[in-house]
Structure formats: structure tokens, C-alpha cells
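Summary for the steering committee. The consortium agreed at its last meeting that each partner would contribute one worked example illustrating the joint modelling workflow. Our contribution is presented below. We chose a case with several input lines so that the handling of multiple components could be demonstrated. No manual editing was applied between input and output; the record is shown as generated.
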Amino acid sequence: MTEKKPLLRVDCLYKYFPIGGGGRKRRYVQAVENVSLSIYRGETLGIVGESGCGKTTLGRCILRLTEPTRGRVSFDGDIIYDSGGLSLPRFDDQGEPLYAEDGSPLLEESKYHAPKMLPYRRKMQIIFQDPSASLDPRMTVGEIIGEALTVHRPDLKRRAYTDRVHELLDIVGLNSEHANRFPHEFSGGQQQRVGIARALAVEPDFIVCDEPVSALDVSIQSQIVNTLEDLQAEMGLTYLFIAHDISVVRHISDRIGVMYLGSVVELAKSYELYSQPLHPYSQTLLSAVPIPDPEKTRARERILLEGDIPSPINPPPGCRFHSRCPYAMEKCREASPEMKEHAPQHYAACHLLG
Amino acid sequence: MKEKNLLEVKDLRVSFFTPVGEVKAVDGISYSLGYNEVMGIVGESGSGKSVEAYSIIGLLQPPGRVIGGSIHFEGENILAYDKKQMQAFRGNEVSMIFQNPMTCLNPVYTIGNQLMEAYLTKEKQATKKEARERSIEMLELVGINNAAGRMKQYPHEFSGGMRQRAMIAMALICGPKLLIADEPTTALDVTIQAQILELMREIQQKTHMSIIFITHNLGVVAEICDRVSVMYGGEIVEQGSVNDIFYCPRHPYTIGLLRSMPRVDLEVKERLIPIEGTPIDLLDPPKGCKFAPRCSECMKVCLKENPPTMLVGEGDHTASCWLHVKMMLKEGA
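What follows is the complete predicted structure of the assembly.
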């Protein structure tokens, strides 16, 4: 069950990648723009969005595989990255925001803090998209899975180490005899299982699943999704599940964040997001997903967007979606909308909603 | 005389002769495609769906070879065509669009140049001016704004969705009767995919050409196709109208596929029911029914012999599964 206190908290996260030019002419890809979210223990937060919307960068920034430009990330109460210079609300031990006597929220000025990540790597892991590219072809599967153990559990004796590797293979549905084989001897689905076993080796609390099933065939996708769900139930894992396939994300997630051009535009419980999407972009995205049911999918009303996603190097001013939004108003061109709670636990950033 | 069907494929077999052995990529498939019909071919990677299409348009590369069967297009056996006839056939009668438009467009020529080239190769008498006009007209048809200006641009200046539109324009410039679309929307985002599907449907209704739509996405099939063939391990395991396939699937593989997909339209969360096992190794295919090792209803006979293709249900709904033989025998007895 989820508790009040978030396991992972992201505040005002930005990531700009420099892409040439010098001095004032320096240009940036604005990959992640002002993202704030919390993930509670034991839940799955899904992130959906089209290619180039920054969902993978967000996942990597949270793990500090990519250093964020600005913002704060805290994990289990510890700050693991703080760029400094942010005014953020203060929270008590239970995760409740603190208020001053006049009712205004208490703010604290953040200070630069970037601790060594090694101790946290044991608790935060990642599963990558392309299993064949993320496994070293010259290491056996046993070595791949065991490598993290040699770093994080140097106390393990040889026997305990092999036992653990075999146990992990068993957990993800492979055989212990697979430990001596190389990645190329496995099918895509099995390779992804190795990737999962590798992430689980250090007994993490939190796993970023970055498109873990999109490289797999339909019939294999469901096997991996079920495995991830079982592991979560058994070990109480928390997932950040990043994917572009909305049906998969909706299936596995408790809550979903919809991203567009670097910003989270809507955040809601997964079933609520589908039944009552508030943001025009979420509405479009959901109506574009083909449903494997001929009558339903043909009868359904479609919102078709004009044009393509603007470039994140030079995103439109104001609301980033206004250039494609069917309901764009004058205001949308000028001011960027703020994320507000429109229903319990249902946040959206759109001027239309007030 | 006009044939009843535009395309008639009979017992087509395609093999790849690789150094490690023969791979039967397509192992005896038969189907027919009518005029003004959109047929979907669904299957996972390695099911032979693309290879089958390549053999229709004569793009099969060695070590791949058609080793048996026939393909009749408007009554003519196109497997008997020589190189010259094949060249005339491609583009005029059949054309193809591919998954990744960037690898199919030449990066050093402008879009206009490539469109005009396609037209001028086929229409020998046409002048450059005509070709230009025709190209602009095609770009407008596929929904590209400022077509005249876009003609001067290079493929890298187009976005992914635009490139796919340009590919469609190029494929249709000579007015083919059959368009083969090989995973045309797989590389695109869902919102762009919706645009392209809408465009293909519009053009199909306007021109009445037939389309073979190859994809692994059952949602896309439900959206655009009239008939569906489900392929597994180089064979068509089930074939029927889109309603047959989605509302009363009869082959365990089709049933399994439909059950294993998470659906965005369900109200309550249900656990997915996956198809167990791993995809088949074509170098060492199982004996008997190719799906048997993964099938939940596998019987002894399935492991020994390949099942016959039988009519199931109404119309031309067919499936290849021993279960139907068993059922029929029971009914007969």
C-alpha cells in the first residue's frame, strides 16, 4: 500500500543540453522543463509521451545518470541532487507541507548538494529499452548479473555469490544453467529478463523502467509486463515506468504523467486519465491510440492534431502545446500554465481549466 | 477480361539459403485480394510477413528465393516476369511504402527531384513540366502544405510524419492498383500514426486501390483493414474478415494475441494472459504445427503433422488448427 510520504520526490527539474554556439549564441535543447512529481513507495508511476518529449531524460536525471541542470531530487528523505537557488516548500517528517501562521506555505532556500551516488545505486536501478544493446556481449549472463554484486556486496563469498546469481535467474523465469551463456544466445524477451535480473541483483527499492517492452514482440510483451508486476508484488518495488505505448503504461501504472515537449502536462490516476482526460493533449493522445476492436475504433471520435511536435531547441512561448492545440487562446501564447489540482489527485496544466 | 480478384497467391514458398541452413521464411501461403480491398497481414517479427510482400513486388534479395507456388496479378503470373517486365510492373501496377522513410529516400536529392524521377521513369512521354505539376498535385493530396516550396527541400528537412507522406506520394504518383504498406506507421508517434492512417483511408476511398497492410499492431489492423491474415512461422494460421478475426477468432494463436494485449479501453484492470514460450527458431522449426510448442491446447497430433486449412464459421473465414478437425469429427460422429 502506498503511504503519505513519497519515496522519491522531484522538484522543479530542468535539463538543458548545450548544442553548440558560444557565449550569447549558445543554444540548448530544452529536454526537461520544470517537472515536479512524487512517487510513493510501492506504486508505479507511468510516464507517457511521444518521442523527444523528454521522458527518458527525466528518468535518467532522477538517477543522475545524466546530471540535471537545475532542480532537486530527493530519495527516501535524502537529497541526492540539489542545484541550489530554489525556493521550495518545506515538509514535515510525514510528508505534509508546513504552513506559516498566516497560512502561507513555508519555503526554504535550497543549497547546492550533489552527494556521491554509489550508496544510492543500490537502492535505485534502471531497466533499459534495448536489451541487446544494454548487455555486454563479451560477458556471460552470470557475470552481467553478478557485476553489481561485486561492487555493492564485496562481503559475499564465492558460493553465496553464485547462489544469488542463480536465485536471480530463477526469479525472472530463467534457468540457473543460463548463467554461463552469452547474451546473443538468448531471444529478445529472455535478454530483457536478464536486464531485469541485473537490476534486481542489489535488491533495489526503486526501478526506472525505460521502455522495457517496446523492443519486444506483442506475445512476449505481456510476459515481461506480468513478470514486472509479480516482482513488484513480491518485493514491494516502486517503478517509474516510461513508455510511449499508452495501453501498456495504463495497464501497469497506478498513476500516469503525460509529457509534452519536456513538461508534464497532466498527472492523474491511470483509470481516471482515460475516462476523464483534462488536458487537450492527453485527450488527443488517448484518442489516437488504436483499439483492437474494429467497431469501437471506427465509431470513436478522433481528435487529429495539425502538424508535428515543435523542436525542443526553440519551443513555442507560453503554453508549449498552443501551436497545435485546437482550443488555443490569446493567453496561451503569453503565459505558461501552472500545474493545478482540478480533482483529487488529478493535476493538469492548462489555461482552459482555469 | 477482368479477373475477379486483383491478386491471387497460391501455395507460395520462399526460402533463404543461409550458410547455416535453409530458412523457410514463407512456407506455403495462399490468399486472394479483391479490388478495392484492404487486407492486413499481422504477425510477429520473423513470421514472414515482409518476405511475402517482397516476393510480390520482386524485391527479394539473395539468398532469398521463391521456391514454389504462384502469384497471379490480374490473371498474369508475375513470378514468370523477366527483369524488364518486372520493372514496368513495379510502380505502375504495384508500389510499396516502407517502415523507415529516411532509409528509402535519397538524402542528396530534393523531394521534388525524387518524385519527378519516379514519374518520368514510368511515363516516358511526359515532359518535366507535367512531372512537376503531377508531383505538386501528389504532395497536396497527401496533405503537405506549401507543396511547391516543399519540392525544393531535402528529406532531412522533413519530419518523420512528413517523410512518410512524401513516400506515399511517391508510391502513388503513377496510380498503382495495389499498394503494399510494410509497417508504415511503426516508426511514428501515435498522434502522427493517426494522421497517416486517416490519410491512407482517405486516399483509398478516393482512388479505390487495394492495399496490403503489413503490421504487428492489431489496433492498427482493426482501424483500417477489411480482411486480415494472421501469420505465424511463415504460414497463414487464420484468415477472415476483420470482424471474424476480432470478434470470433478461431486459432489459438490469434486468440492468444488478442488476450495478451493490454487495452486502453477497459474499465477495470485485468491481468494479462500471455502466450507462453518463445518465438520459433526458423532454422529449427518444430515438427507438425508450428505453434504447437506454445499452444495451451496442444494435442498429440499437433506435434506430428501440420493441420489442414479449414473453413470455420461463415464466409471465407479459415483457420489451420487440429482443434477444428477434432470438432468436425465429433459433429460428424
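DSSP finds twelve helices and 14 strands in chain A. Residues 134 and 160 of chain A are 26 Å apart (CA to CA).
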